Amino acid sequence: xxxxxxxxxxxxRKQLEQLLERASDRRIHTTGVFRIDSYGNxxxxxxxAMLYDAFFIDITGGPVNGFQLVRxxxxxxxxxxxxxxxxxxxxxxxxxxxxxxxxxxxxxxxNHDILRQKLKSQVQYLNKPxxxxxxxxxxxxxxxxxxx
Length: 148
Hints:
Layout (H helix, E strand, L loop, with lengths): L1 E6 L2 H17 L8 E5 L2 H5 L7 E5 L7 H10 L6 E5 L4 H11 L9 H12 E5 L4 H15 L2
Parallel strand pairs: 1-2, 1-3, 3-4, 4-5
């Protein structure tokens, strides 16, 4: 499985890399090795977004936040699971508001409805600090989706 991390906090990014590498080591005989790329900004991850089977995102500083990166990934056609790591920004509230903002009477194939469905189906959450048990549970869900 090919995983992208995009976090503008370098220490959080490195910690998640280590957690994923250890999870990969524990799963080497069952689900195989994880390949992990790590980025500190949206432009870097967007340059090769279609390569990944999953994304772990937390961007809190600067002009772009994690939700805006999620929108760009979805608009680019990425269908992989996107895990928003909640630290200073509560992405659940932002995503819930984005889902509600779409008009209830929207045509099924409208851009609003497509975005709403993708947000509901692709986006998941992990709270920081990330716990090993929660990460393992999330990886199990991702692997089951990717292997379908």
